[in-house]
User: What shape does this take?
Amino acid sequence: MNGSGNGNGKENGYGKRVKVESEVARKKIKTEGEKKRRVKREQKEEEEAEEYEWWRDQNGDKDDTIRWTQLEHQGVLFPPEYVPHGVPILYDGEKVYLEPEIEELVGFFAALLETEHGANPTFQRNFFNELKLLMSKSKRKYPIKEFSRCDFRPMYEYFQKQKEEKKQMSKEEKAALLEERKMIEEKYGYCILDGRREKVGNFRIEPPGLFRGRGAHPKTGCYKRRVRAEQITINIGKDAKIPEPPKGSKWGNVIHDQTVTWLAMWKENVNDNTKYVFLAAGSSLKGQSDLKKYEKARELKKHIVRIRKDYMAALTSSDGKTRQRATALYLIDRFALRAGNEKGDDQADTVGCCSLRYEHVTFEDGKVVFDFLGKDSIRYYNKVEVHPAVYRNLVSFQRAAKTPGNLLFSLINTVELNKHLSSLMPGLSAKVFRTYNASHTFQQELEKQDVTPASSIHELTLAYNRANRQVAVLCNHQRAVAKNFSGQLSKIADRLMGLRYECRRHIDLLKPNLTDLSLADRAKYDLAPFEQACRDDPDRPITTEWLYSYFADLLTKDIERLEKKKASDATQSNLDSIEEKLASLSSELSTLNSKKEALSSSKSSKPYIPEMYRLTFNSIDKSFSTIQRLYTRIVATKTALVDKDENKTTALGTSKINYIDPRITVSWCKKFDIPVEKFFPKTLREKFKWAMHADKNFKF
DNA sequence: GCTTCCGACTCAGAAATATAATA
DNA sequence: TTATTATATTTCTGAGTCGGAAG
Assistant: This one.
């Protein structure tokens, strides 16, 4: 590996920035240390792998239709054959035992019983049709007629139990399993490409199951059948040894096509789509096209002003087709919309720019509202201001479309659009705008961030992620809300409430003591911003009931702490005082509980505060600094809350992996003296090997 | 020429797994 | 400490783009 690239991590390791501040941090140091060792080990592995630095001898005008000259590989790995378990399902409450083939299919459904797929009517219907088909072909007679009379629970429970058992496996068993996995990866996971050992991506043949289409896919739940060797085409070098198919079978076809990069291919039965086995993302072949993609996007930089001028002028063209094309381009460029190819009826109804329909735009307060399902049925909702000409055009396109269901851009399509684009710049197509705008936005946002090389790792990470998030929002990259998200949020909100309450009572304590001060002195202790910060959240007011739970919580935690202390390092001398404290804590806890009980019946106005948590005034300065400290924590907790909430549905990964030129990250890391490992985990460093030596002055 | 089809590739979020944080 | 839970990373496979061949 080249020195300038990888040496970076060593010179600027974590150690320099980790501040040893307290004993509490000691534990951190240990884990930091372990982390450091792990990172070092990874780096070593990266260095050890003998490296072909393909990016060093790129010559642009090589014949790029031939993708390889030598290709050797081990073929594909098939999933294990089905092993029947004999667990029945219930029909009208009666046990029904199934023959293996049918049991397997039913098992696919039973496993998904508690998921959204299992509850999806289309999924259920498609699955059940497949089941009826299999039963009708069987010699056996099954009583099963209606889905609603089936009970898949027993099988579901059985699978759950199995999962549980797997979790309970001993260390040795787990290690053995891992070992086997490694062996398999060693065999199938690599190929020889032009004399070099390169990683293969998905060498595992997809196991049978129920097709899990996204969104409202009409075929979701259909039986995705087991793939056999006879369906598979192997692509391999002429001189290479052809991999052995499973016993008793043979490959469907073996070809030696040097113009493509796949190693194996088959047709999947549900949608008749082709599935490929490709090299891994870190391979030279993938890396080369990745680099090419970003270079093309950078090429667009040189033309973007002209292209924008071009389509802005065309917005008011007298030719309808030209106006539509210009408007579509405006949307693709400004809002990073996808091109939007036509789709069939046997697919989910999703759209991109060119396939937008009447119902996907509305006009509100002089703005345009886009609301449609995009790729993967992810909702795109955006209320935006647009250029007046674009507004006028959209209104008129919609009027021309007349009714829902009709195309907004009725006169153009993606093929034409891309043809036009490639006439403006060789190789330009709609998707290049997404790459260009994503990378460009990222670089700009990064520059906007208020950080210096002296900033802490934490601040730098935050800055990076903020820029990253801007791009994710631009590209509408979303993710499902985490399972217990609201629980996690309310936990933080609860913590915030506690801080607010504490801040409030410290202010109340201090305030009366300020009245005697001179006006000038009083100005030194301005409480206004703090009072503002600890004002109640109207959605979560501090009630007496909450207060009692708050103190009960504090008591419980203090009791636990003391119990621990008692158990671990109590000497005879302090044992008594511990016992004493424990007793008073417990008594306060029971007092509190009874007060809480009484709360529902009587409405006493003054909340009871356990003795040990009552505040006593000490000095103005002490009190004031406590308030300041609490204030800082309130602000930090608030931002954490906002941060978490904003990140709730935003997926940062997709843009990092596919849209942001990695050289921007690398150069920024060099400039700000922070290891790239902070932002690129192992596989990404592998994927972006070609970008690791980017200069610190690199500009996208 | 045109439209339609389809092959080959990139990009997408969910699910599985590994790791770190916390009780 | 160990067990549990949260978070980060990797794997999986479905869903797009786009260009060129076929009809």
Residues 31, 35, 38, 212, 214, 260-262, 265, 274, 276, 278, 286, 289-290, 293, 375-376, 378, 415, 431, 477-480, 560, 651, 653-654, 657-659 of chain A lie near DNA strand B (CB under 10 Å from a C1').
